[in-house]
């Protein structure tokens, strides 16, 4: 007699995935755990709406490749997520299913079908960065007569000079800043990797003034709200976009740019690259896991390409465009 499909509840494995796999074995950062939690919460909510079954009553047969693919499509069409966000969600799901494969060999085929779902390809846009005049306009935008304006200027100058991620900025405490000889700021980046980034004279001077006004303990957030709480990612994004709109009134080139906190990080990388700093050093400066992550800035810098063109184009080369001598070659050339 052939039995029906094996029924195995998801809930115990899902709980063990967070408590055993992520927290204990991998010692994942709180940000990673939160990102995976949000993904799986969205997934279970979607499956509940599709099947009517509560998350605690779902089994692995409810999460087959067809359902996971439908969820990924929902992220793009229903929630208007980008392809990049879709792929990040898929990574979290695949991590859960890789763990489940060790605990549920009876569902090996179903799990493998989910693991075989590929990430979606997308067009990589050229990174947006600020020129020196645009940086000056942005830093001049906050109202220095207000406490929030002085805080925002110090925050944006630090972001532009150090290239810290917005999550690294929100995590900074007053004690993470060292002034004087060897002035630097220490942060914890992705993968719990800690690094120290040196401070320029202007950044050090502004932080010195801000720390005096801030008057916080070493464990207090460096950039707090009026009530002393830590600024959120959304709050920083709102402050940056608000100041960018103000700066655009005196710097028209900002009108066509969508300015968000990561643009400040891009601007730091481009400034280092244009100053002749080696890409391996830039990768260390920004906390990249690989030098390959820094290649995007090389692609974005047209001046580097122009210099390369000047070095490779012979001075005696005759101007003109290559014309294929044969119709078939001409057809292939046109493809």
Could you characterize the architecture of this molecule?
The chain has 335 residues and is mainly α. The chain is 55% helix and 4% strand. The chain folds into two domains: 11-115; 132-310, Orthogonal Bundle (hpI Integrase, Chain A), CATH 1.10.443.10. A hairpin with a 5-residue loop joins strand 1 (177-178) and strand 2 (184-188). Helix 4 runs antiparallel to helix 5 (108-115) and helix 7 packs across helix 11. It is globular, with a radius of gyration of 25 Å. The mean pLDDT is 86.
Keywords:
335 residues; mainly alpha; hpI Integrase, Chain A; 15 helices; 55% helix; globular
Number of helices: 15
| Proportion of helical residues | 55-70%
Mean pLDDT: 86
In the CATH scheme, what's the topology name of the largest domain? hpI Integrase, Chain A
Q: Strand portion, in percent?
A: under 5%
CATH level-1 class of the largest domain: Mainly Alpha
CATH architecture of the largest domain: Orthogonal Bundle
Low-confidence spans: none
Cα-atom radius of gyration: 25 Å
Main sheet properties: 3 strands, antiparallel
SSE string: HHHHHHHHEEEHHHHHHH
CATH superfamily of the largest domain: Intergrase catalytic core
Q: Find the count of extended strands (DSSP E, 2+ residues).
A: 3
N-to-C CA distance: 59 Å
Number of domains: 2
What would you call the shape? globular
- The chain-level structural class is mainly alpha
Give the neighbour order of strands across the main sheet.
1-2-3
């Amino acid at each position: 007699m052939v039995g029906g499909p094996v029924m195995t509840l998801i809930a115990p494995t899902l709980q063990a995935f967070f408590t055993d796999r992520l927290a204990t074995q991998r010692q994942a950062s709180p940000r990673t755990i939160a990102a995976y939690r949000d993904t799986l919460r969205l997934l279970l909510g979607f499956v509940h709406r599709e099947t009517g079954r509560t998350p605690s009553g779902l089994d692995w047969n409810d999460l087959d490749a067809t359902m996971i693919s439908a969820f990924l499509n929902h992220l793009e069409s229903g929630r208007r997520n980008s392809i990049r966000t879709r792929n990040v969600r898929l990574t979290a799901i695949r991590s859960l299913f890789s763990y489940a494969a060790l605990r549920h060999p009876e569902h090996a085929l179903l799990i493998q079908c989910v693991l075989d779902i590929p990430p979606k390809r997308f067009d990589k846009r050229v990174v947006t960065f600020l020129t020196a005049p645009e940086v000056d306009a942005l830093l001049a935008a906050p109202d220095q007569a207000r406490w929030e304006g002085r805080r925002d200027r110090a925050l944006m100058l630090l972001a532009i000079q150090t290239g810290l991620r917005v999550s690294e900025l929100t995590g900074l405490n007053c004690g993470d800043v060292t002034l004087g000889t060897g002035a630097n700021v220490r942060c914890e980046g992705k993968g719990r990797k800690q690094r120290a980034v040196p401070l320029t004279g202007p950044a050090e001077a502004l932080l010195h003034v801000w720390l005096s006004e801030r008057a916080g303990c070493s464990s207090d957030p460096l950039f707090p709200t009026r009530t002393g709480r830590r600024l959120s990612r959304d709050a920083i994004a709102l402050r940056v976009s608000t100041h960018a709109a103000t700066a655009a009134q005196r710097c028209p080139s900002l009108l066509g740019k969508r300015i968000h906190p990561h643009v400040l990080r891009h601007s730091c990388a481009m400034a280092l690259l244009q100053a002749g700093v080696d890409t391996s050093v830039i990768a260390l400066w920004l906390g990249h896991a690989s030098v390959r992550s820094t290649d995007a800035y090389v692609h974005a810098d047209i001046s580097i390409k122009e210099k390369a063109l000047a070095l490779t184009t012979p001075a005696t080369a005759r101007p003109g465009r290559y014309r294929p001598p044969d119709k078939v070659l001409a057809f292939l050339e046109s493809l």
